[in-house]
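Table 4 source record.
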Amino acid sequence: MALAVAALLPTAPALASAPVCDAANGHAASFNGGRLFLWRPDWLKQTQQRIDSDASLAPARAALLKAADAALAHPLYTVTDKTRLPASGDKHDYMSMGPYWWPDPAKPDGLPYQRRDGRFNPERDSDAFDVTRLEAMSSDVQALTLAYYFTGEQRYAQKAVQQLRTWFLAPATRMNPNLDHGQAIPGRVAGRAEGVIDAHRLPRVIESIGVLQQAGKLDAQELDGLKRWFGDLARWMQTSKIGKEERAARNNHGLYYDTLLTHFALFSGDAALAARVAERAKVARFAAQIGSNGALPEELERTRSMHYVTWTLNAAYDLADIGRCVGVDLWDYRARNGHGDLRKATDFIAAYSSDVSRWPYPELNKADTLDYYKAMLRASQQWGGAAYADGAASLRKGNEASEWNLLIPVPQAAANE
């Protein structure tokens, strides 16, 4: 089974012909002016040509269209719909609650909340806060955009553009470009540095904008407004107290900070900032967080270590891809002491990919393998090799409907076997 599915996965030679990512222009030259940075335009085109006939894509195609059709019926999400008011008094300010914080059962009012690592408090996802709306908005924009690209149905693009205007541009409903009140803790703090990582949902929006741009669905004024919004958020990340605190984080939060900042900077047109952050990440993130044996010790200590290691590696892959756009090589970087080697970190998790039950570190939910699957897919297309392909094949079960099966296409000849 593993060998059969492994044959479906992209291999390293595909990388040799990859389109060039040109700084803040991204892949515009090979995508009709659409500025993609993480999504490969050649892979999108291949999937577009095969999605209606390739049986291996059927589960992902069905899931995408189901999500897009549902998104057509969803409301236009906005931060101004939350039922609680952030400490600023402005409902345009995003607000969320720390996911692992719970009421103190010994206190009548539950305050201050207490931390239970790895155990989500469902209150976080209530209408009082914005994180569920942020997730819904970004997921809907991505589903609608990809459904439009693969089917050509205008209704999907129209709803995606309406949602972008509502969340980012319309004065009555737009989100202010800050995360001052992200991951607040009732009874303790009105916002924390950890809240910056809530923005990990925004890269899918940036890539979707690139697809809509190449199709002419956004006018010049709207595109400029979106660029300014992300540029303002990038400035907030660099200058605010919370942003500076998050930059100092030494675990996945610090790595995600750099990944998000480089992406936002490139989209807003600041290639010089993206290059500086990517270069700094060699020592500040990769060498500091990846040990000489490939382990990520900060993540292995978590109660959901498998999730956090694979989730962090996917952020590292994103940062390495963005680094390519500005001439910084992170894919093959290694410090003199052997730390920071992204491939060695990938080999560390590949060793358990054929049977995740053997993962020897704490993990509350070994059934959640999507980030693991994504990591093996991406390693296979970056470096080639049977270990990564076989790992992805083993992890494919349960992840057949993932959008990553559309963003990384399956070779047609192998799919017909």
